[in-house]
Specification:
InterPro entries: Aldose_1/G6P_1-epimerase, Gal_mutarotase_sf_dom, GH-type_carb-bd. By secondary structure, this protein is mainly β. The chain has one domain: Distorted Sandwich (Beta-galactosidase, Chain A, domain 5). The chain is about 5% helix and about 45% strand. It is built from 4 helices and 27 strands. The strands form 7 sheets. It has a 9-stranded antiparallel β-sheet. Strands 1-2-3-4-5 form a 5-stranded antiparallel β-sheet, with no helix packed on it. Strand 1 and strand 2 form a beta hairpin. The longest helix is centred in the C-terminal third of the chain and has 8 residues. The protein is globular, with a radius of gyration of 19 Å. The chain starts with a strand and ends with a strand.
């Protein structure tokens, strides 16, 4: 019997894809019908992600598609007044965070199409899903670019990899801002000693809504994160925007649960120059959110190279990879 399996189950009215690796006691659950959300991952008996209290909460709880598992963001975070311009074209996004912000886009709340899933000894367990703007006239009405997003989650040797490919199927260059919002299970409420390590270069001054208020600088916190900084008293609804430092390898962030003797490790692609730290007040969790650009970047008066503003040209494909795993104390 193979150590890997991939199956579709019906759970609370949703079709859920379950990926398993019996040798590592690892399992992941993805819900394509609700934003292709990787909403559960456990490895070696340790919970890695915070799932919703129920899958029906994804339908009924306000802002639920943003609050659990791993929401996929396009654009990441907020756009003031939902307004910005790119290459002379004005964009007006829905104000889905009253009274005056657009928040996180619609990829994390819409249904995705499952293209394939399966398992083998050589390739592990996987599921591939796709979302095409071209099939949604209501999205094209305010974002007239038929982008196609394809995401594969693969569980192999106890590690969960996400591979994303975004293609511009249209004729015009489109503004591009992409991010992920994993909610890692971190036991703040249990007296745990919690330590975070991030290969950070600089910290951006931001508001409590993560809007940028100035240029990034080196701070005591950004310096401390390189070696390890305590987050045991990180405030609820607090946020920190960081730029990753230069390096030959893709950045790896680590959250150490020192009392429990294990670490959540999260490796992100170099195409994500920024990471937002965030602690919610509705769950015992901590987010490390990789972004291609800082919050509301298209409206900032700084060089695009600094803020991550970019476009995706007609016919162009952009690829991103992340990897998530558990490390235990020797």
């Amino acid at each position: 019997m193979s150590r890997y399996s991939a199956k579709s189950i019906l759970k609370e009215g949703y079709s859920v894809i379950v990926l398993s690796d019996s040798q590592w006691d690892a399992a992941a659950q993805v819900i394509p019908e609700a934003g292709c959300n990787l909403f559960r991952f456990e490895s070696g008996g340790h919970p890695v992600l915070v799932p919703p209290p129920s899958l029906t909460a994804l339908r009924n709880e306000p802002f639920a598609p943003f609050k659990y598992g791993t929401p996929i963001l396009f654009p990441p975070n907020r756009v003031k007044q939902g307004q910005f311009s790119f290459l002379g074209r004005q964009y007006s996004l829905p104000l889905n965070e009253p009274p005056s912000n657009h928040l996180h886009g619609e990829l994390c709340s819409r249904g995705w199409e499952v293209l394939d899933y399966g398992a083998s000894q050589e390739n592990g367990a996987f599921v591939t899903s796709r979302f095409r703007f071209g099939l949604h006239p209501d999205i094209l009405a305010y974002f007239p670019h038929p982008l196609s997003f394809t995401v594969t989650y693969r569980l192999y040797e106890g590690r969960l990899t996400m591979q994303a490919a975004i293609v511009n199927e249209g004729e015009d260059e489109a503004p591009f801002a992409f991010g992920l919002h994993p909610y890692f299970f971190v036991p703040f409420d249990r007296g745990e000693e919690l330590v975070l390590k991030v290969p950070a270069e600089e910290e951006w001054p931001v508001t409590k809504e993560a809007f940028v208020t100035g240029r990034p600088v080196k701070t005591n916190f950004s310096r401390a994160l390189i070696e390890c900084a305590s987050i045991s008293t990180y405030p609820e609804l607090g946020c920190t925007m960081l730029t990753f430092g230069d390096g030959a390898e893709d950045p790896v962030c680590r959250i150490h649960m020192k009392n429990r003797g294990y670490t959540i490790a999260y490796q992100v692609d170099r195409q994500f120059p920024f990471v937002l730290l965030f602690r919610p007040d509705w769950a015992s969790a901590f987010s490390l959110e990789p972004y291609t650009s800082v919050t509301d970047a298209f409206n900032l008066p700084y060089d695009h190279e600094l803020t991550g503003v970019k476009g995706i040209k007609a016919g162009e494909e952009l690829r991103f990879t992340t990897c998530l795993w558990i490390e235990t104390a020797k």
